[in-house]
Specification:
The chain is α+β, with helices and mostly antiparallel strands. Helix content is 27%, strand content 17%. The protein has a domain at 1-94: DNA Primase, Chain A (Alpha-Beta Complex). A 4-stranded antiparallel β-sheet has the order 1-2-3-4. Strands 5-6-7-8 form a 4-stranded antiparallel β-sheet. Strands 9-10 form a two-stranded parallel ribbon. A hairpin with a 5-residue loop joins strand 2 (41-44) and strand 3. It is elongated, with a radius of gyration of 18 Å. The termini are far apart. 35% of the residues are buried.
Length: 236
């Protein structure tokens, strides 16, 4: 089984080649003229991740199945049948217990998931281009900071002074498509400086407001550290 057979089961025919495969947008077709006659979306042939360059929607195979009105349990069965279960996990409101998204935050996730999200972004040329358009973040910075992709949010892995993962932040880079808060943190996660100052080899460290500005600082070649939520940051 493969990515192509998975999409074929959903009624989406993919070109028989490698790399990014053009398709018509199916998550937000009303946002496009003429039923998106000139395909504005793409599917990664290796991961099955989907991204629309026009409206900014995207996600993994599970999200794609749900977008085609497949029930959550049936979507998981499709992932397993087509050999995609290890590449994608449910993240929507119908996800299985213990993996369900909650409005108050996110359940703790493993370093394996951080790597999976990173691979999803690095392997999605369309998402990388869109991110550079929105924020000016290039693939080199994405790789250096280990940024990832989860649906339409950019994943920022937060680590402590020893380099251990302490949580994942999810940032909505497009202000016109934000649904809820600009930044989401896992439930119970302590918001610390990002990235950890101890991880930077520099004589001068730039202190900026917010993790996204820290990423922009690194894009400019600065050893930048973001203060999360300056209004709640204690001087101590």
């Amino acid at each position: 089984m493969s990515v192509r057979t998975f999409y074929a089961a959903l009624g989406v025919d993919l070109p028989d080649r490698a790399g990014e495969l053009p398709v018509r947008c199916f998550t937000n077709p009303d946002a496009h003229r003429h039923d998106d006659r000139d395909p504005s979306a793409s599917v990664n042939a290796d991961t099955g991740c989907y991204f629309c360059h026009g409206c900014g929607s995207g996600g993994g195979p599970y999200d794609v199945a749900v977008a085609h009105r497949v029930a959550p349990a049936d979507a998981m069965a499709m992932l397993e049948k087509h050999g995609l279960k290890e590449r994608d996990e449910p993240r929507g409101p119908g996800a299985a217990p213990g993996r369900q998204r909650r409005t108050s935050g996110w359940l703790p996730e493993s370093a394996d998931n951080a790597e999976r999200f990173h691979a999803a972004l690095v392997g999605n040329e369309g998402a990388l281009r869109r991110l550079e358009e929105l924020r000016g973040w290039t693939p080199a910075t994405v790789k250096r900071l280990g940024l990832g992709l989860d649906g339409d949010r950019i994943v920022l892995p937060a680590r402590d002074a020893e380099g251990q993962l302490v949580g994942l932040l999810r940032y909505a880079p497009d202000p016109e498509r934000r649904n809820g808060k600009k930044m989401l943190a896992e439930k119970g996660m302590a918001r610390e400086l990002f990235p950890a100052p101890e991880s930077l080899e520099a004589e001068t460290v730039w202190l900026v407001e917010g993790e996204p500005d820290a990423v922009s600082g690194h894009e400019l070649g600065l050893a930048a550290v973001g203060v999360p939520g300056t209004g709640k940051w204690s001087p101590g």
